[in-house]
UniProtKB/TrEMBL annotation:
This is Intraflagellar transport protein 172 homolog. Keywords: Cell projection, Cilium, Flagellum.
Length: 237
């Protein structure tokens, strides 16, 4: 709510510069997705949405520490058994970690991610996200090495009919407010005040989970979205 109030105040100010507003709106969006992911992890039916958020957050690794982002997305994909994608993401995580240890982002090869909207030029953190959990870091290294020798696992990111990785936003795509993935299909949910969108399936799952598990943080996520973007009370197209 603090960031939302700040963004609204900046938008109402005649003195706020556009790039400052854009920056704080990006921070608001990132915070929203982190909160939504945490809430989704409280409901088994929403685990797939939580994983989508982790992957979609990689487009914000110019703000989110890059090794943290790739670690979380890779481990979430691995947890769902999506080994090909997990391999690519965690292999990139290891490349980033090597760059952190060497103090140079020039060591990071982005070619395996050419079908994504993940930024290739990002700040290199001062220390590893897993600096205090090096055993886990080493386990990831061993897993990536093992998968690299498994010919049954495709070691590339799959692409869709846009020739993009599924989480990536094309030029005309808008991110789903629930999952961060591109809004696809007919009749997405539209939020009245801002005309932001959500995939109908993701919003439906979120609202059902809120009714089924009112003790979780999911109802609060829905309340925040509607406070921020307006009621989800009509559909486009």
């Amino acid at each position: 709510n603090f960031l939302l109030n700040l963004v609204q105040a900046l938008r109402g100010s005649d003195q706020a510069e556009a790039d400052v507003i854009d920056r704080f709106e990006q921070l608001l969006m990132i915070s929203h997705y982190y909160c939504t992911r945490a809430a989704c992890r409280q409901a088994p039916a929403l685990q797939s949405i939580a994983v989508k958020i982790s992957v979609a957050m990689l487009r914000h690794t110019d703000v989110v520490p890059v090794d943290k982002g790739y670690y979380e997305a890779g481990m979430d994909l691995r947890g769902l058994g999506r080994e090909s994608e997990a391999f690519v993401i965690l292999n990139h995580y290891l490349d980033v970690c090597e760059a952190i240890e060497e103090g140079s982002g020039n060591l990071v090869d982005h070619s395996d991610l050419s079908s994504t909207d993940f930024p290739s030029s990002v700040p290199i953190p001062a220390e590893l996200h897993l600096n205090n959990e090096l055993n886990l870091h080493e386990e990831i290294r061993e897993w990536v090495l093992a998968v690299s020798m498994d010919q049954k696992v495709d070691q590339v990111l799959p692409t869709d009919d846009r020739n993009l990785y599924e989480s990536s936003l094309g030029i005309s795509d808008q991110a789903c407010l629930v999952s961060g993935y591109p809004v696809m299909g007919r009749q997405p949910v539209v939020f009245q005040r801002t005309h932001r969108l959500a995939n109908r399936d993701a919003w439906s799952k979120l609202t059902v989970a809120a009714r089924m598990a009112p003790q979780t943080d999911i109802p609060s996520v829905i309340e925040f979205i509607e406070k921020w973007c307006g009621p989800a009370n009509f559909l486009s197209g």
